[in-house]
């Protein structure tokens, strides 16, 4: 005997209240085990795979790929076997039937699956809707067998034909917005074709240039846009910069590698940032607008920009002030790999106190970077190129870069910002400067 278990989109933490369904990893009719990854979703922080706390047969998927789903809404329905029907379990894991009912506690990398009532950021009224069986076969005509017309979940589009779903996906049609004309409120092919025609007409009327496309500003891109806009609205920022001779720093990196230390330039810049913040802690702070206070941190959580297929992310190295240069290098590699694979947990993308941006990897010399709200400063490093430079009284070809510092003018004045940037420059031009702070 099986009991339907509706798994709701769990609390995502970090104040997140919604996620976009990217890819389903199971289909209706598949059997799943406890903690099996069933779907990949994208939040404003990261793309993560969601494991299911129930074992049994999948009877319904409650959201199409591309759907924006709120926390606490039905995600998937599992026909879970009741406790009176034992299911063989691996002795290696030593799990019990109770685990399938309560959930294993491993959803969304650090967030629990057990949700007798899911944790919520705000109160919600009403109970979970009845599960909607999604048939595996169908037709795009308006006539359907009675066995396939089970009651639909409230607010969910009813589409019985794979052909109709494929047509909608191909033309980027949101089925939730399509008017159904089939029996029992079923969406048929003619409904999708009508929606395509209407969308085409609207695009033709509003497009300013041929081939114009529109992309929803949501998920991580939406979160980045909101953060940058808020930074510009709230922070009275200023930028200062300096050209630097990085020849000695490159020589130091080469010497470290020859000595067996796998350290890159970004790790060296990170080490310099940490040392600079120890001398100028005003920049390792934030402004509490509600209480009209400057909050100076006693730790350094160093964020660094990492380019990925999903856009620019800022993973955070927690307690960077306690790390050696080699430990910083390891942390940078690990977080970069996670960012590019889409496996960063939400907490690995938040809580930064200062950001380092090596925009030189894009082949540019300088920038006036926007501060990563709610932080107070950001250090940017441009590309390192050969340039003529006055060195020891002579003109020589040296490895030259530009460093720029954007800072919140509420937390410090130009003297502090200039002092920090000059210290960073001294460490880049003469790495032995770092030893004075050890």
Automatic annotation (TrEMBL):
Gene3D superfamilies in alphabetical order: 2.40.50.100, Chloramphenicol acetyltransferase-like domain (3.30.559.10), E3-binding domain (4.10.320.10)
GO cellular component: a single term: cytoplasm
Highest taxon, organism lineage: Bacteria
Cofactor list: (R)-lipoate
InterPro entries: 2-oxoA_DH_lipoyl-BS, 2-oxoacid_DH_actylTfrase, 2-oxoacid_DH_E2_comp, Biotin_lipoyl, CAT-like_dom_sf, E3-bd_dom_sf, PSBD, Single_hybrid_motif
Keyword Transferase: yes
Keywords, in A-Z order: Acyltransferase, Lipoyl, Transferase
Composition bias type Polar residues, residue spans: 81-93, 129-142
PANTHER family the UniProt entry points to: DIHYDROLIPOAMIDE ACETYLTRANSFERASE COMPONENT OF PYRUVATE DEHYDROGENASE COMPLEX, LIPOAMIDE ACYLTRANSFERASE COMPONENT OF BRANCHED-CHAIN ALPHA-KETO ACID DEHYDROGENASE COMPLEX, MITOCHONDRIAL
Protein name as annotated: Dihydrolipoamide acetyltransferase component of pyruvate dehydrogenase complex
């Amino acid at each position: 005997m099986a009991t339907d278990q509706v798994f709701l989109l769990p609390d995502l933490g970090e104040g997140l209240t919604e996620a976009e369904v990217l890819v389903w990893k199971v289909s209706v009719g598949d059997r799943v085990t406890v903690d099996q990854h069933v779907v990949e979703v994208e939040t404003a922080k990261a793309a993560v795979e969601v494991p299911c706390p129930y074992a049994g047969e999948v009877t319904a998927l409650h959201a199409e790929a591309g759907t924006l789903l709120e926390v606490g809404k039905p995600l998937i329905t599992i026909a879970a076997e009741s406790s009176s029907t034992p299911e063989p379990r691996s002795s290696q894991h030593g799990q019990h039937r109770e685990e399938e009912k309560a959930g294993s506690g491993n959803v969304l990398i650090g967030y629990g699956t057990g949700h007798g009532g899911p944790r919520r950021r705000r109160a919600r009224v009403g109970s979970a809707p009845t599960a909607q069986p999604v048939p595996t076969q169908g037709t795009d005509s308006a006539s359907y067998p009675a066995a396939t017309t089970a009651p639909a979940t409230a607010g969910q589009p009813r589409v019985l034909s794979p052909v109709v779903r494929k047509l909608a996906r191909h033309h980027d049609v949101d089925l939730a917005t399509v008017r159904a004309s089939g029996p029992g409120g079923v969406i048929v092919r003619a409904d999708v074709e009508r929606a395509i025609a209407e969308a085409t007409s609207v695009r033709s009327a509003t497009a300013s240039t041929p081939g114009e496309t529109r992309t929803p500003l949501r998920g991580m891109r939406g979160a980045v846009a909101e953060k940058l806009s808020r930074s510009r609205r709230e922070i009275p920022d200023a930028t200062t910069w300096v050209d630097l001779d990085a020849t000695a720093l490159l020589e130091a990196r080469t010497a470290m590698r020859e000595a067996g230390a796998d350290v890159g330039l970004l790790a060296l810049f990170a080490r310099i940032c940490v040392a600079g913040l120890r001398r100028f802690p005003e920049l390792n702070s934030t402004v509490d607008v509600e209480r009209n206070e400057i909050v100076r941190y006693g730790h350094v959580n160093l964020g660094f920009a990492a380019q990925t297929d999903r856009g620019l992310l800022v993973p955070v190295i927690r307690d960077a002030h306690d790390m050696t240069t080699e430990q910083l290098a390891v942390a940078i590699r690990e977080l970069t790999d996670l960012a590019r694979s889409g496996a960063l947990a939400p907490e690995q993308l938040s809580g930064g106190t200062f950001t380092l941006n090596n925009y030189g990897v894009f082949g540019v010399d300088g920038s006036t970077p926007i501060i990563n709200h709610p932080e107070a400063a950001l250090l940017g490093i441009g590309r390192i190129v050969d340039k003529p430079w006055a060195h020891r009284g002579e003109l020589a070809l040296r490895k030259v870069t530009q460093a720029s510092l954007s800072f919140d003018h509420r937390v410090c004045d130009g003297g502090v910002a200039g002092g920090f940037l000059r210290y960073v420059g001294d460490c880049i031009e003469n790495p032995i400067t770092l030893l004075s702070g050890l």
